[in-house]
Amino acid sequence: MSIRWDGIILGASLATLDTDADYGEIRNGVLGWKNGLLCYVGSRRDLPGDPHRIADIVIEADGWITPGLVDCHTHLVFAGDRAREFELRLQGASYEDIARSGGGIVSTVRATREADEEAVLQQSLPRANALLRDGVTTVEIKSGYGLDFENERKMLRVARRIEQQLGLPVSTTYLGAHALPPEFAGRHDDYIDAVVEWLPRLHAEGLVDAVDAFCEGIGFDPAQTRRVFDAARALGLPVKLHADQLSDLGGAGLVAEFGGLSADHVEHTSEAGVQAMAAHGVVAVLLPGAFHVLRETRLPPLDAFREHGVAMAVATDCNPGTSPLLSMRQAMQLACTHFRLTPLEALRGATINGARALGLNDRGVLRVGMRADFVHWAVAHPAELCYWLGGSFARGVYIGGERRG
Ligand code: NIG
Ligand code: FE
């Protein structure tokens, strides 16, 4: 064979997900890759010749191989923790009570502002690494704990440095409109002026891939959110939204109106919101970690998403307040347990639909020409990925054909 492949892994079953109907299973499968892309996806039977004559690296495997997991919603860059707030909530305080009394997001803002870039990086790297070791091959990271120009910039720079240090692709999201910083108390509109002014400066430094906001009673109203989205649109940046998490402010419909990537949380999204999402191809990002930690009871409109063909993604929402969750497998487990997703829906939500929520169409499925991002798991069936609580099942995490975990 004249053109050698860089690598080949063979013997495991493949869950290609290259079909809407099932896992797209190939028993005794083979993946081959070259220059970071898959160049062969098939069964061992059909492999043309001795693998050692085809590829430089030959890996014998058993168990299962899935596409690499895509965590499309995290706030994993921050300093400090909120364990004390967790205790207060267990004693009866609500998330909103704590936010209104100066805790919550604003307390992480204080800690993140006080730490320099290196310290924020050192505190955040282990979180990204934990996700990677449990199968994540692309992660989205939001700003939103800086809430001034320098500190939002610091967070986004840390996100880019995580990509460089771990070889883990990072998609950055500017979430300046996450909460009102204390210096703007009572002046939401003035703060939005500032958020809108910082955006092109951060974008000019190559720090922004998408723009998000927290549209909620304790966040920003739809008119303020719209101003942030207008600023994103002026720069050609895609939008997404913390939408309808604690109440229905029509956030999902607003994302749809702007042709955005995703509406996230969506517990309170109305039927009209779901229809608007379907009409504009907006992905519903389900965040069962926050639902679980806040002990929410209102389920997202899952049947309406299915009925209208809205793609559902699953993400960790890794953050110090509502979802200190460091594993996509656990997010998938919670999505099945709380939201009754099937394990196949959860896996699609953690791969192909997560990629879609980031506007990435080169990953999330095992298909020739896609990125060689895949995970070799020690499981007997892919449903096991949603079944265990805890444990360690990833035997190899490959990103662009390189073993990273
Ligand atoms: O996705 N809802 C707003 N943002 C985060 C929580 C952030 C925090 O509490 O620090 C969320 O749940
Ligand atoms: Fe979030």
UniProtKB/TrEMBL annotation:
The protein's Enzyme Commission number: 3.5.2.7
Domain of life of the native organism: Bacteria
Co-factor(s): Zn(2+); Fe(3+)
Reactions the enzyme catalyzes: 4-imidazolone-5-propanoate + H2O = N-formimidoyl-L-glutamate
Chain sites annotated for binding 4-imidazolone-5-propanoate: 82, 145, 178, 245, 322
Annotated function: Catalyzes the hydrolytic cleavage of the carbon-nitrogen bond in imidazolone-5-propanoate to yield N-formimidoyl-L-glutamate. It is the third step in the universal histidine degradation pathway.
Protein name listed in UniProt: Imidazolonepropionase
Organism: uncultured Lysobacter sp
Lineage: Bacteria, Pseudomonadati, Pseudomonadota, Gammaproteobacteria, Lysobacterales
